[in-house]
Amino acid sequence: MAAWLLAFMLTVAAAVVVIHFVNAKVYGPGQQISSYFEALQEGDGERALGLLSAKVPQSNAALLDGDALRAAAADLELIQIGEPRDAGDNRVDMDVTYTVGDEEARSTFRLARVEKDWFFFDRWSFVPSVLPTVTVTAPSQREAVLNGVQVALPEETTTFASFYPARVETSYESEFFAAPSETGVLTSPRETLSLTLATEATEALTDAVDAEVRGFLAGCTSARDRLAPPGCPFFHFTDNRVQPPIVWDIIQYPEVNIRSVSGKWVLSPLNGRARLTAEQTDLFSGARSPLEVEKDFSFAAQLSVGAGGVSVTPLID
Fold first, then answer.
1. Which of 28, 77, 159, 259 would you call most buried, defined as having the most Cβ atoms within 10 angstroms of its Cβ?
2. Angle at Cα 114 formed by Cα 109 and Cα 116, nearest 5°?
């Protein structure tokens, strides 16, 4: 009888140990966190949002599913899920340590015990929170690449909701404009990550504008009988009589500088130098002499870049 009772008590004790182990490892709050990280890495936004029970703020949802979400979690490598810390009211806080690329980071998740399964096993869920956001500022463009996905930027600053932890990278590249990538990491709810794209004109655009400017100036130098070619930024006046051919040459072409002003791409003033050569006659003495003079010039121009290409419209007073 004593042996039977001892065996029974040992069985009960073993069952308690098993239940405690299963409750902690299989049904514990850490399992919810592991499942959440798996959903992020699989790009399963619906599952991740269901697990996290988070509110999505008013924003663009491009980062919340598919390739953009997978990219946000691609560099995440879980190091350790810490032990639960009592937060009162059947809640616990759990610190999760992970790496994002080469950097180590930590997030804290709060979970609540909501009920039990089979009378023994706890069921946990994340305490509802608000997803963090990423703001992408791009004053001079209306699209960008966000975690490898093309997104629209309808405003100068566009807000995107994101899960956490997440690594977010934005950049832009086209034939005529490009911005180097900007990267940041989100580690907690209600956090805001601000990324600004410093978009600049590409060498291809600068070359295209330079060709337009040179073409315009070539038209100005093609006339052989004008001291002041019409619609051109340089001229020369004299009291002497000047005989054709009157030759204008550009000896210093304007340097093209394209910049963004109030969300529009504009050209800085175009400054250059021209040389005039001809023969002149003094009206008082009748003496003939060569005429050679150099003139600095400057003009503004309107830049238009669209699907049809690049156009430059000189603005001559």
1. 28
2. 125
Per-residue pLDDT tens listing for the chain (317 residues): 555 444 444 443 433 333 333 434 445 899 999 999 999 999 999 999 999 999 999 999 999 999 999 999 999 999 999 999 999 999 999 999 999 988 999 999 999 998 664 444 578 999 999 999 999 999 888 999 999 999 999 999 999 999 999 999 999 999 999 999 999 999 999 999 999 999 999 999 999 999 999 999 999 999 888 999 999 999 999 999 998 899 999 999 999 999 999 888 999 999 999 999 999 998 888 899 999 999 999 999 999 998 778 999 999 98
Q: How far is CA 273 from CA 207, 253, 312, 313, in A?
A: 20, 7, 19, 19
Distant-in-sequence, close-in-space partners of 102: CB < 8 Å, separation ≥ 6: none
Q: What is the reported pTM?
A: 0.81
